[in-house]
Amino acid sequence: MAAHYLEFERPIAELDAKIDELSKLSETNGPGAFDAEIAALRERVGRMRQEVYSRLDPWQKTQIARHPERPHFLDYVGGLIEDFVELRGDRKFADDQALLGGLGRFRGRPVMVIGQEKGHDTETRVRHNFGMARPEGYRKAVRLMDLAEQFGLPVLSFIDTGGAYPGIDGEERGVAEAIARATERCITLGVPMIAVVAGEAMSGGAIGIAAANRVLMLEFAIYAVITPEGCASILQRDRKLAEGAARAMKITAADLIGLGIVDRIIKEPVGGAHMDPAATIARVGDALEEELNALTPLSAEAIRERRAERFYAIGRG
């Protein structure tokens, strides 16, 4: 599959195309014919990518957070969770494949894991509704959190959604109430809960599974009450002004850790998580293990109190 380049990566794309061209010529002209030129171009690409990614603005980070090759929930499950068993259905209406969850072992420790899945191609994106959950998705999340508390299992959640599904069927089945109940259940859990903002975390669709003891955020992820496009549409009546909205909204990891909304930033490989998904997933796993080790000795009451204090403190100072 051809690499997907973002607009601001165009100079890098041009150099990569030259490398590909020289590599093909090398195949026809004999091994090593253009090795020196290819090595020099690759070194130049590395320097250029390092420079570009050291000065990204919020809109560019938004594009990276939405990159189609970025690892999603099932990639993290595949890389971190052993013996995963998916648990389906909300026991009220249906199973929502936009919000997945189940049991497994994280580095030898039994856990409950939940998260939004966007999919990687047309078939899986349609199946998972682009990560936009309906009410039954959030009711499923509540059911799984209930099970986790019943059996004393930590909860790991991965947030990656443009928001809950805004269709009429979601409204008819009470999406706002379902998100509120899921948020409430996060807050009241007597077991450790750690949330990872893995891509874009927008609106109530994100907070419904993100009201955790610790909220971790990947370096180029974004987190806000609404998408930049939605903000521009409402406040300025023009979705084309989304870039300016992204700059004003304080949606990046650097902004949010300063505001106390997230607790820890997980560094991504140069070029974003999609450049080296395995390394990204391993870094997320290491961070999760550290946070779980710190929370595991706490009593259920202490876990609830710390979580409540964390969210009550947002916006105070």
Description:
The protein has 317 residues and is an alpha/beta fold. The protein folds into two domains: 9-55; 62-312, 2-enoyl-CoA Hydratase, Chain A, domain 1, CATH 3.90.226. Helix content is 49%, strand content 16%. The protein has 14 helices and eight strands. Strands 1, 2, 3, 4, 5, 6, 7 and 8 form an eight-stranded mixed β-sheet that branches. A hairpin with a 2-residue loop joins strand 2 and strand 3. The protein is globular, with a radius of gyration of 21 Å.
Run of helices and strands:
HHHHEEEHHEHHEHEEHHHEHH
Mean pLDDT: 94
Q: What is the radius of gyration computed over CA atoms, rounded to a whole number of angstroms? A: 21 Å
CATH superfamily annotation of the largest domain: 2-enoyl-CoA Hydratase, Chain A, domain 1
Protein traits:
single chain; 2-enoyl-CoA Hydratase, Chain A, domain 1; alpha/beta; 8 strands; eight-stranded mixed sheet; 317 residues; 2 domains
Helix/strand layout:
Elements: H1 10-29, H2 35-53, H3 58-65, H4 73-80, E1 81-86, E2 99-106, E3 109-116, H5 122-127, H6 135-150, E4 155-161, H7 168-172, H8 175-188, E5 193-202, H9 203-207, E6 214-218, E7 222-224, H10 228-236, H11 242-248, H12 253-258, E8 264-266, H13 277-295, H14 300-312
Parallel strand pairs: 3-4, 4-5, 5-6, 5-7, 6-8
Antiparallel strand pairs: 1-2, 2-3
Helix pairs in contact: 1-2, 4-13, 6-8, 10-11
Concise overview:
The protein is an alpha/beta fold. Helix content is 49%, strand content 16%.
